[in-house]
Amino acid sequence: MQRTQAGAKVAAAASKASDASAQPSSSSSGASSLGASAPARLLFGKNLAEKEGVLDVLYWARQIAAILVGVLWGLFGFTGLVAIIGFGIASTAITIAFLVQIVQVDEDEFGGRWELVKEGFMPSFSLFLVRRLGAFLMVAFMV
To answer: Where exactly are the transmembrane stretches of this chain (predicted)?
Structure first.
């Protein structure tokens, strides 16, 4: 009889352990552990559940921003160093605002703000140059 009670206790302890491991802990709860806002979770879904997903979302958001800024700079006729420095400032501001306001990530989790600002900068810079040149030439030849 004692053996049956001991076996029941072991089975109950094993059951509790398996139940605890089946429930997600607060450290691995996906987007909520990164502190993503509700609109960000709706827009980007499960991509914000992991560190790589946040970096992917940041990369593509930066590419879209580069297209928009490139077209605007081309339409307004910004050229040379003014256009390049303006893009650097606009791209950095957009990235930081996107991460802080929409995604709400902890910068230290990714190696600091500078690492997040560098993520995808060169591809977005080349995309910016191509879009700016296209818009600038379109305006120049239409007039």
So the answer is: none
Q: What is the pLDDT of residues 70-123, one digit of tens each?
A: 999 999 988 899 999 999 999 999 888 888 887 777 788 888 888 888 888 999
CB atoms within 10 A of CB 66: 26
pTM over 0.70: no
CA-nearest of 134, 110, 106 to 59 is 110
Cβ distance 38 to 100 under 8 Å? no
Q: Are 87 and 131 in contact (CB under 8 A)?
A: no
**The two three-digit tokens of residue 45, written as one number:** 């879904």
Handedness of CA 103, 42, 71, 128 (dihedral sign): positive
| Neighbouring residues of 126: CB distance < 8 A, sequence distance ≥ 6 | none
Domain positions in the chain are 30-142
32 sits in which H/E element: helix 31-34
